[in-house]
Specification:
Layout (H helix, E strand, L loop, with lengths): L18 E8 L11 E8 L2 E8 L13 E7 L3 E2 L1 E5 L5 E4 L2 E2 L2 E6 L21 E6 L9 E7 L3 E9 L9 E5 L2 E8 L7 E9 L2 E9 L2
Parallel strand pairs: 1-9
Antiparallel strand pairs: 1-4, 2-3, 2-6, 5-8, 6-7, 10-11, 11-14, 12-13, 12-15, 15-16
Length: 215
């Protein structure tokens, strides 16, 4: 039996004249294509403010491939009010109002997050420094724990994100006093081989560390 149906070509007969916006992403801390990023655009459509969401995906169906650019239809809006990109690494990029009907190319700003060694990048500010440690001293193997150092008490949310921007485990929430803390992230040692991001959110601040899991 054939698993592929007949090919179909769709023709767009929509009347021209509506406004639009196209956003192309280049990841620096995240994957190069920005797969997993969430792009939100706020515009006033028909007199009503409305947020639209696009998620950058590599493919959603058999034999097909999504565009790696986020295309947003803006109807009668000749401009947008806000543009927000949430990258897989945890970096958040936001812009104010600007004109529609154009292509915007955005590069992830590594200076707003933590580089792989857990130290703040130049110009970054955050309440905690986040690093990773593997039990047994074998890099990339063994149960994982997040080592968090903070100069003050924080409400921490810890997430483990895979290379496609999906959660690899349930978020961990902890109330942490000032000092050094070790929080188990994958105590069962169940992660598959691959690249992951460990993300710490504390209030409006975010720290990110990269992990490569070996098998």
């Amino acid at each position: 039996a054939r698993s592929e149906g007949p090919s179909v070509l769709w023709r767009n007969d929509t009347a021209p004249g509506a406004h639009w916006l196209e956003i192309a992403l280049t990841g620096m801390l995240s994957n190069r294509s920005g797969i997993g990023a969430r792009v939100r655009v706020l515009a006033t459509l028909g007199g009503q403010p409305r947020w639209q969401l696009r998620v950058i995906q590599a493919g959603t169906g058999y034999g097909g491939h999504d565009a790696l650019e986020a295309h947003v239809g803006l109807a009668d809006a000749g401009s947008y009010d806000s543009l927000v990109v949430e990258w897989p690494s945890g970096v958040r990029t936001a812009f104010g109002a600007d004109a529609a009907d154009r292509r915007i190319e955005l590069v992830e700003d590594a200076a707003t997050a933590t580089i792989d060694d857990g130290r703040p990048a130049p110009g970054a500010s955050a309440p905690a420094a986040l690093t990773l440690a593997a039990a047994g001293g074998i890099p990339g193997r063994g149960p994982l724990r997040a080592i968090i150092e903070t100069p003050r008490a924080i409400e921490a949310v810890i997430e483990l994100i895979d290379a496609q921007g999906r959660r690899a485990a349930d978020p961990i929430r902890r109330s942490l006093a000032a000092g050094r803390h070790e929080v188990p992230v994958d105590p069962a040692d169940s992660l598959r081989a691959g690249v992951y991001w460990l993300r710490l959110a504390a209030g409006t601040e975010t720290r990110v560390a990269r992990l490569t899991r070996l098998r």
